[in-house]
Amino acid sequence: MFLVPLLALGVAIYAWQQRDASAASGEYRTVAIERGDIRVGISATGSLSATSTVDVGSQISGQLTEVLVDYNDRVTRGQVIARIDPSTYEAQIAQGAAAVASARAGLATAQASLRNAEADHARKSELVGRQLVARSDADLARATRDQALAQVQSARAQIDQQLASTRTAQLNLDRAVIRSPVDGVVLTRSIEPGQTVAASLQAPVLFQIAEDLSKMEIVLAIDEADIGQVRAGQAVSFNVDAFPDRQFRGQVQQVRLSATNTNNVITYPVVVSVDNEDQSLLPGMTANAEIEVSHREDVLRAPNAALRFRPGDGEVATPGPPGGAGGGLQDELPRIAATLQLDAAQQSAFDSAFAAMQARRASRQSAAGSEGGRSVLFGGGGGGRPGAASGTATMSASMRQRMQERMAQQFSAFTGLLDASQRTRWNSALGELMGARRAPLYVLRDGRPVALMVRVGASDGSFSEVAGAVVEGDAAITGRARGAQ
């Protein structure tokens, strides 16, 4: 008899609670937490150019008699592309040949004089021995012979000098024929037949030849705030105004260290290699590029508006579960290790170090009590007052440094077994984990706002990767409903 009133009272209480929950949920705008990809990119512009471009000049001065190639002509290595009037150098060669002939005639004269001096010296040396001439006459004959020998050597040196001068004139004559140094395409031609080339101070550029237009490059100017995220091998997508509906692909080839200061803005050149097999891209085109610096696949992501939402004065949010399951090192370290493809010995070393780390943490928490055991990395923060959530998530640089040193010491045996590539990936992932930002996220559960402390990862401007007590399907609060107070 009393069951009917009790049942009616229970139904009424449940209906009242549901009405309150519905009323509360109607006060907020929400977006469901979902899994998806987050792609982080850096935008920049640059100009396309051939990977190897050769400036062809002239080493000699003179008037151009022939220009044998034009813009866009394909040329081969050694092909004649222009000629300079050779008459000046031909005359120099003829003059040099005459000088060589004269020097050889002088050598013949000197050799004849030497033979006569040697015969005279021989006769007088014999007569001196027989005491028929004075010794002074023999000495004079010897001096005359030595002078004739020196004249022969001088004549030979003059011949060598004239031959060298003639070879120089011959080289200049050869340089009057300008040849292509590479196989390629003529990009520019800055001369016309009849034009005079003056190469007295520096070689003027007559042609510019692109060696291979099937391989091109873009030099992007990356701001100093973003250059730390750029690495060789990262994917690049870009488009050009000539093909607005087509997306081209490239890859970061080099991050150059030569900084450029433009109006106190520091940028670094980044070279992107581009495959241009179809020859559709042309040198000089402006490329609007985006470097993919991070690509996270199948991660929990929340809208950035939800991470910016904060309750107003008088609003109360239910604290989430302390510790933030999945938000600390106890969950992230095994995930990082799983990506390294460890062998049996490495996995055993990791398991030992990880178990020792958990044992030490449990011991410290037991000694310090529940309040002292909170950690922004291992969990425990974010379970208190919502307004203080962001404060508990802040980790100073000194605290992060101490944590990194402690982690390096605890996992030294494990990292000692890793190869260079594995160690680099481990250190990079660990640095990202410790440097990640913690922020409060408010979700609706059972019609009521709940405050969760989450770890915020990569962001593409609209969504951010989140980890912690949040689960797929949670309704993240992005703002108050229109008309709600």
Structure at a glance:
The chain has 485 residues and is an alpha+beta fold.
Task: Tell me the layout of helices and strands.
Elements: H1 3-25, E1 28-32, E2 34-50, E3 53-57, E4 62-67, E5 74-75, E6 80-84, H2 87-129, H3 135-175, E7 177-179, E8 184-189, E9 196-197, E10 205-210, E11 215-223, E12 235-240, E13 243-255, E14 260-262, E15 265-275, E16 286-303, H4 304-308, E17 318-319, H5 329-338, H6 344-372, E18 375-382, H7 389-392, H8 397-410, H9 412-415, H10 420-435, E19 437-445, E20 448-459, E21 463-468, E22 475-480
List key phrases describing it.
485 residues, alpha+beta, Elongation Factor Tu (Ef-tu), domain 3, OB fold (Dihydrolipoamide Acetyltransferase, E2P), six-stranded antiparallel barrel, four-stranded antiparallel beta sheet, 10 helices, 39% helix
The mean pLDDT is: 80
Give me the secondary-structure category.
Answer: alpha+beta
- Give the proportion of residues in helices: 25-40%
Unreliable runs, pLDDT <50, ≥5 residues? 14-25, 323-327, 370-374, 376-394
Instruction: Please give the radius of gyration in angstroms.
Output: 43 Å
Globally, the shape reads elongated
Strand order of the largest sheet: 2-11-15-13-12-16
Please describe what this structure looks like:
- The protein has about 475 residues and is an alpha+beta fold.
- The protein has four domains: about 25-40 and about 300-480, no CATH class; about 45-50 and about 210-295, Beta Barrel (Elongation Factor Tu (Ef-tu), domain 3); about 55-85 and about 180-210, OB fold (Dihydrolipoamide Acetyltransferase, E2P); about 85-175.
- It is about 40% helix and about 35% strand.
- A hairpin with a 2-residue loop joins strand 14 (about 260) and strand 15 (about 265-275).
- Helix 2 (about 85-130) runs antiparallel to helix 3 (about 135-175), helix 5 (about 330-340) packs antiparallel against helix 6 and helix 5 (about 330-340) runs antiparallel to helix 10 (about 420-435).
- The longest helix is centred in the N-terminal third of the chain and has 43 residues, at about 85-130.
- The chain is elongated and about 140 Å long.
- The relative contact order is 0.15.
